Amino acid sequence: MTGLPTLEKTDNAERIATAWLSELETSIAGQDFAAVGESLTADGCWWRDLLTLTWDIATFRGRDDVTVMLEKLVPECTPRDLKLEAGRAEFVDLLGRHTVEALFTFTTDIAVGRGVLRLIDEGGRWRAWTVLTSMQDLIGHEEKRTSIKDTAVDIYNTAVRGRETWYEKREREREFRDSEPTVLIIGAGHAGVMLAARLQHLGVPHLMVDKEDRLGDNWRQRYAGLSLHDTCWFARFPYLEYPDNWPLYTPAELMGDWIESYINLLQLNAWVKSEVTNARFNEAERRWDVTVVREGRERRLRPAHVVFATGMAGKPKLPTVENSDAFSGEIVHSSSFSGGRDYPGKRAVVVGAGASGHDVVQSFYEGGAESVTLVQRGASYVMSGKNGIPVFHGQFWTENGPQLDDADLLSTSFPWEFQLEELVPGATRMIAEMDAELLEGLEKAGFSTDFGVGHQGMLGAALNGTGGYYIDKGCSQLIIDGEVKLQRGEIVRFTENGVVYADGTTEDADIVVFCTGWENTREMARPICGDEITDQASPIWGVGEDGELQGTFRQSGAAHLWFIVGSTGVVRGLSKHVALQILGVEKGLLTPRGLQGDASEG
């Protein structure tokens, strides 16, 4: 690529971005991949693709890997019509680099896409530092939206004898009386609901099944006082916004009400009091044979796809501790904890110093417990909400942030490893400086803090499933002030009236809550799908060698079996791509992985 404006020649970000896109398109059309390589920074360029080139969620790192990827894939999936979005190029300072950041659109033979481009001046030439290409729609199968043109549709202009009412139609659709769902989603929490909404807009028949008595009860039945740790701007749902006076951190009960209302307002299909007891895949027919027990009655369904949307948590991990049978009090996992208000005047011990452990400790304190002890087994990353959240979310997720789709596009344009290696360490140090008094107070109280491997802090712990992080909402000050006792190490033995720690210390207790994590989410499939199918699927979560989250938002490795897990913001940003992959399979554009004799790529 030659002739691009340099920093010395112009300060017009639009001109720079437009010229780069134009020459990229010319080089791709001519299959001049040497020129494409020259357009990329020699020092650490990144290209993240969300389905448009790879039919996968994939990250390519370094000029050589990016060029090889394009040379392999472009002949069969050529991006064209690369156009800068009007007014969407600007100069930004990113990690001290003078950067052109631009949003653009493009098409392929089958899809419409959007992208994000970041250019830096390298050796007097503007080259790409990071590129995102993200599928937005499959051509001919775009998201369905009501149009003024719909006024000409016959149903609105013709008398129909015995016309089916809207409610009757919804009942028929929801019950699947004369049809089968293409996608069966197990779980109607935020992940299942967001995916259902995406599928609904793409015209893909779906059904969510949830074992709770009422939609949203998976949030309402959590312990009293629980709220989301993400702000209302990050935790938004697609297609329907919260009111502008929504609580900063959504209370669990309100989230339950929101999910119930969202399902009804978006006309999504869901069954409650329903549990999937068995699911087996028929490879010849490429459909599942699923048994659902609904209010005591069995119903057989034949969906093409099964999606587990049962949350990040698999089966609770409850440690085996000597002499637990002799303990006269309660032993519970945090997943079964009802709330501190049920234990006024009681002596509580909480094992685990991650987010759940801190929340449970604070719940006991606020509920009037006589004493609360936090057992810390290893160092934890702690940041205050007041300082940490504005650093991490201030660019995209505030009352004055970008439009939701733009914010999601910009956020997903940073590959996970780019965030962990380039963005997060500096942010972690910045927050630590602002939180110096808090962190010093915790250390003086005997609470062990750290910043994670490579100063990757909260994001590193969250992405790699190691836990051990907490966004402070008051519990840290309780520890500093001595309102909460601190014990380092492990419980090694129970007594009739309490516990014995590894250092020999004893403590009387009425209840012990283990906040000790969960098994891998994949294990939720094993009792339903069996060992053979479950073992084909990748373990869920964690950034793998390919730089992407494993097993979720992409094909699992088992044919027609999907997992979707993550925080509300992450799920919202990538749920559309799960729906597009499912649609791609149904339209014959994407080959499912895990079928006998089939390749792994579409």
TrEMBL record:
Keywords: Monooxygenase, Oxidoreductase. This is Flavin-containing monooxygenase. The keyword Zinc does not apply. It holds the Pfam family Pyr_redox_2. Residues 182-379 form the FAD/NAD(P)-binding domain. GO terms for molecular function: flavin adenine dinucleotide binding; monooxygenase activity. It comes from the Bacteria.
